[in-house]
Amino acid sequence: xxxxxxxxxxxxxxxxxxxxxxxxxxxxxxxxxxxxxxxxxxxxxxxxxxxxxxxxxxxxxxxxxxxxxxxxxxxxxxxxxxxxxxxxxxxxxxxxxxxxxxxxxxxxxxxxxxxxxxxxxxxxxxxxxxxxxxxxxxxxxxxxxxxxxxxxxxxxxxxxxxxxxxxxxxxxxxxxxxxxxxxxxxxxxxxxxxxxxxxxxxxxxxxxxxxxxxxxxxxxxxxxxxxxxxxxxxxxxxxxxxxxxxxxxxxxxxxxxxxxxxxxxxxxxxxxxxxxxxxxxxxxxxxxxxxxxxxxxxxxxxxxxxxxxxxxxxxxxxxxxxxxxxxxxxxxxxxxxxxxxxxxxxxxxxxxxxxxxxxxxxxxxxxxxxxxxxxxxxxxxxxxxxxxxxxxxxxxxxxxxxxxxxxxxxxxxxxxxxxxxxxxxxxxxxxxxxxxxxxxxxxxxxxxxxxxxxxxxxxxxxxxxxxxxxxxxxxxxxxxxxxxxxxxxxxxxxxx
Length: 496
Ligand SMILES: *[C@@H]1O[C@H](CO)[C@@H](O)[C@H](O)[C@H]1NC(C)=O
Ligand SMILES: *[C@@H]1O[C@H](CO)[C@@H](O)[C@H](O)[C@H]1NC(C)=O
Ligand SMILES: *[C@@H]1O[C@H](CO)[C@@H](O)[C@H](O)[C@H]1NC(C)=O
Ligand SMILES: *[C@@H]1O[C@H](CO)[C@@H](O)[C@H](O)[C@H]1NC(C)=O
Ligand SMILES: *[C@@H]1O[C@H](CO)[C@@H](O)[C@H](O)[C@H]1NC(C)=O
Ligand SMILES: *[C@@H]1O[C@H](CO)[C@@H](O)[C@H](O)[C@H]1NC(C)=O
Ligand SMILES: *[C@@H]1O[C@H](CO)[C@@H](O)[C@H](O)[C@H]1NC(C)=O
Ligand SMILES: *[C@@H]1O[C@H](CO)[C@@H](O)[C@H](O)[C@H]1NC(C)=O
Known about the structure:
The chain is α/β, with parallel strands linked by helices. The chain has helices spanning about 25-35, 55-60, 65-70, 130-135, 185-205, 220-240, 260-270, 275-285, 300-310, 345-355, 355-360, 390-400, 415-425, 465-470, 470-485; strands at about 5, 20, 70, 85-95, 100-105, 115-120, 140, 150, 160-165, 175, 215-220, 245-250, 405-410, 430-440, 445-450, 455-460.
């Protein structure tokens, strides 16, 4: 595979290196933070202030008849299922010609009473179809032949009606006819467009208006999810109407607070025997990860270089996982198991979603875009704003009575459990339920601690960055408890 290298002379932010069509969500995050934490990155890291009030009259358009047009009869290579699926575009800016692609899997049962759950992946620049829908919590996974699908028994549409959004424009099938939009991306525009998407989507699917609504996501969606939630809350308040009935958010292995996220990462490397105590000490002494730090000392640079060599051959997003050795598709599907994640899955999904028959069935790429569908975007050129922390938003949700859950797959080294614990600790929340193991199927699913407020922190034992890929049963149990608002079970009895 050809290695592409974009470079920047003007100190603007680019999404750097990517092997085409195997650029991983987490890789994207690593490159982004390498740039973000440098001097003159050009990224505005000030706190998220919210987005302009969306004038509903100009942004909300009639959607009659579009829902039925979006119905997906059957995906190519799909096993029989009983729930309905939809896919299509929602225009978020008419004059620019900007439209976001969604895929919606209704609940397998009780779709009328189950909540609506929006799932977002991170990057920035990665697709919720690539990861969330096709490799993590969606109803299907792609076989190694790149053209047939098999069922995910632990799909989250066992617990909710699940909506996947490719966001912002330039990611996956989402696009803009005004290409300069691709260098004007950032957290604020992502939140604004996602909000406009949602209010229009609810016009298209009016039976979900007023339904209990939750947003979940992982990785850089640690920014997207709270920022969209904040936008929803502030529009509800400004209009004095429950435009969107937001009840809670859940983020996993999420970027929350830059300084502690980075310090916690080195801590994790040290305590998982990936780097030496000496190098860890040197980092501790010579690096400044505070949000206003610019250049680092030579000692710091030397130490981080050693770290990079030490972790080079690992999948740092799941430090115990096998690597993808043969990425070639196979003529016949390899035997696949939901409980045993295939590290080459990105390649299968890439092949599947680039098939013309699949795109037609999904109502995707209707304008014949000039680039491939990619799991992480090659065409976003610049990211303009990315606050150094989102903790003020989490505190806002707690004081507004929203449910806030933060989970962490404990074998991820990129946004590891230590980072998340340190980031939560910066909020100094009083403890409501002290640390204890939580159980699923008679085993420890992970550990949890509940803070007054209400914030639940939960680890998922044996899961990497993409928690539902590695621990699908535990992940389904976690999301079910989150949606029910019930505490994770503290006993191994009655939890099969
Ligand atoms: C983008 O341009 C194409 C071709 O002109 C058009 O068919 C499409 O509707 C436009 N997209 C939006 C969202 O306006
Ligand atoms: C964004 O791209 C457009 C053309 O694609 C260019 O005219 C504009 O100067 C670019 N803006 C920035 C901030 O790089
Ligand atoms: C908002 O609604 C509440 C309760 O219905 C009402 O008391 C209040 O006056 C409203 N505020 C505005 C600004 O409309
Ligand atoms: C840098 O930020 C920290 C808080 O993150 C603050 O205490 C410190 O004074 C700042 N230093 C400078 C030089 O602005
Ligand atoms: C940062 O760079 C400036 C000049 O480029 C230099 O004077 C300063 O010592 C550097 N700071 C550190 C911590 O190396
Ligand atoms: C994978 O495909 C490439 C080119 O299509 C071929 O050269 C290579 O031998 C294949 N590798 C395996 C392990 O089949
Ligand atoms: C869209 O379709 C065109 C023409 O078939 C194809 O070349 C392109 O790779 C597709 N792009 C995406 C994003 O699916
Ligand atoms: C376990 O959880 C239940 C229900 O949440 C609670 O009533 C009980 O006190 C807990 N037991 C212990 C030992 O914490």
